[in-house]
Amino acid sequence: MPFSHHSHSGQFCGHAANTLEEVVQSALSKGMSTFCLTEHMPREAADFYPEEVDHHDEASLAKLYDDFYVEARRLQKAYASQIQLFVGFEGEWIRPGSLKLCQTILEKHDVDMFVGSVHHVHTVPIDFDTPMYHKARSLSNGTDEGIFADYFESQYEMLQALKPPVVAHFDLIRLKSDDPERSFKTWPQVWDKIERNLKYIAAYGGVLELNSSSLRKGMTEPYPQVEICKRFIELNGRFTLSDDSHGVDQVGLNFSRVLESIKKAGIEELVCLAPAGSPNSVAADERFPHVIWATISLKELEAHRFWKR
């Protein structure tokens, strides 16, 4: 029953490891019932990461996603009797041109879903390394409070433009900050933006992923922090599980610690992507009529053999 709605592979991502099929096999071996393949979307040449130097232009990076889509659909069919796979992408909001890039993928490929994320502030990566974070912060009055406010403003732009079915690592901005465990409520301006964004997500029916990647990077709580989860519960928001894995070793990693935060936040049920017509389902995104969100109680989730490994 455990599931993940956000993953990457070294075959199609320069900072990941293993082939896409190896990642799928890892999810299968760990007893996962649903696994979403969400490789990064193509980006403008100005936004290439250092490991993408082999891609000389935007067309080259776009072809990488095209190749991913073909392989992901092949695996979806090949493993259909063993695990439910869904094919999508991670839509990254960087600059105004990001909207067109996302629209191009949605027009070109019949994806099942996608996750929306922000990895940049002022077009500078904020989670790649500390020097880049500091560079971005210098453009936000030089303070963590300033860059946090700008991050959630960019996120709001992304939410309005894309309305992603899954909102990825909601508070990623804290990763390279001076105090990653700090309560957002200590900065009223930042907390106001967080509440605004959460209200918007709840209103259009978006789902927040409980992303375990923060835990392998040294933090004590998954994305988003428990205090954010509690506020989203008050807004009748929905949650799902994601490992944001970048290779076989990270598939399902630290899910037991995510379960602890789920209980701490008071989350009583999660949702998981399923084919349309599945039982215990709730409203789907009208852009993807062939899939639905299935509701799973915390009790059902805990009863799965995954947790006894």
**Per CATH, which architecture?**
Alpha-Beta Barrel
Order of helices and strands: EHEHEHEEEHHEHEHHEHEEEH
How many strands, what sense, and barrel or not for the largest sheet? 7 strands, parallel
Q: Give the class-level CATH name.
A: Alpha Beta
Distinct helical segment count: 10
Round the Cα radius of gyration to an integer and report it: 18 Å
Alpha-carbon distance between the two ends: 13 Å
- In percent terms, what proportion of residues is strand? 15-25%
* The CATH H-level homologous superfamily: Metal-dependent hydrolases
Task: Give the class from helix and strand content and strand pairing.
Answer: alpha/beta
Tally of discrete structural domains: 1
How many β-strand runs? 12
Q: Which range best describes the helical content: under 10%, 10-25%, 25-40%, 40-55%, 55-70% or over 70%?
A: 25-40%
> Largest beta sheet: what is the strand line-up?
1-2-3-4-7-8-9
Pfam families: PHP
GO molecular function, one term: histidinol-phosphatase activity
Catalytic activity: L-histidinol phosphate + H2O = L-histidinol + phosphate
Family: Belongs to the PHP hydrolase family. HisK subfamily.
